[in-house]
Design a protein that fits this description.
The structure is a homodimer.
Chain A: H1 3-17, H2 22-29, H3 33-40, H4 48-58, H5 62-67, H6 71-76, E1 91-97, E2 105-112, E3 118-120, E4 128-135, E5 138-142, E6 147-149, E7 154-158, E8 163-167, E9 172-179
Antiparallel strand pairs in A: 1-2, 2-9, 3-8, 4-7, 4-9, 5-6, 5-8
The first copy, chain A, binds a DNA duplex through helix 3.
DNA sequence: TATGTTTGTTCGGTAAAAAGAACATAAGTT
DNA sequence: AACTTATGTTCTTTTTACCGAACAAACATA
């Protein structure tokens, strides 16, 4: 799938969502409408500043023009898909909702007993983890800068680098969301 | 802030994270290394296919090259944080993570006291809600078929139809994720 | 029916991005 | 030292994306 085809698909949709005609959008973005016309028809190879001008005029991030319809493609890749966490002796992770085709996240409930910390190998690039501690106490986060959490605390950190989860009190439980880009 | 400057900052970092030299990356992406050199020095106005080739070679989404890097970690202590949604007398919802450009989900922590049920108006079509109960007891779900949850229970239901959240015990707390299509 | 005003399209001229070669520099071999 | 193989930079050439103007088609106004 060539990148321009994605733009050709998303651009008219976002433009109409903003209630703009092709000519209006071109004027507002400060680009020639011929350029916009070709982009929407799937031809050409837009430069970054062109995309930037369009995204700004549409009041959306540039990424929405490029990989909004892309999530499915990224998930299909072998080796990059959602992986089940291994359940060690003192660490039980329950998969509550596996990643459906449209979304890009897994939700786990983790129940941990004090003892050895669970260090996770990095997940695919761009992964973020979100933790909300429900009970007990835990030391959570990047290996180089973990944070002690109390019930109700929320902490998010990059999952594509080494990170840890260590219970500091019995029956520590938390909600863990793994999110891909 | 011009977009090219962001790329110039991001590109070398991602390249080194992948353990590639400038020449290696250029070869693997199928672009001239002169092009890459100028991009990393903050000059030029790269075309979409150039960005695409680089992102693919680096095994990252294009948006990572373009959009400003989000703060990597974020900690919200229990009781702190922005109180989004209408905080009725017995219902406090804290927005933990609002929807970033690429993803489409909001994470809330809700703390509810027994009393009147909180009925929500339907959200946009396709929205799903996920609830993990942390403490207390609650009656949650679609108005016509709510479910009583105990700590640790997980329940998901369509958010685009009327639904309710009613605490059945004091200090009921839960994690709520609203997910768009 | 004429007359503007929009719509989105298809053309040449020009500025610029990308490719490729040549360059200097550095680190490792023989 | 002489040679090899990397590194990243700076050039020239070729390609092409952008612009602006001219264009046809649809709609409105008079």
């Amino acid at each position: 799938m060539k990148p321009i085809e994605l733009i050709a698909a998303t651009l008219p949709r976002e433009r109409q969502r903003a209630g703009l005609s092709l000519s209006q959008l071109a004027k507002q973005a400060g680009i020639a409408k011929s350029t916009l016309s070709q982009l929407e028809s799937g031809a050409g190879n837009p430069a970054l500043e062109t995309l930037w001008a369009l995204a700004t005029a549409l009041n959306i991030p540039v990424s929405r023009l490029i990989d909004a319809p892309q999530p499915t493609t990224r998930l299909i890749r072998a080796g990059e898909g959602p992986r089940a966490l291994s359940s060690e002796a003192n660490y039980i992770a329950t998969l509550l909702s596996s990643c459906p085709p449209s979304a890009r996240r897994d939700i786990f409930r983790v129940c941990v007993q004090p003892g050895q910390a669970r260090d996770s190998a990095p997940h695919p690039a761009g992964t973020m983890e979100h933790v909300i501690l429900c009970s007990g106490r835990a030391l959570v986060g990047p290996l180089e800068a973990p944070v002690e959490l109390a019930p109700g605390d929320y902490f998010t950190y990059p999952g594509d680098r080494p990170h840890t989860f260590k219970a500091l009190a019995p029956d520590t439980s938390a909600v863990l969301m793994m999110e891909s880009i």
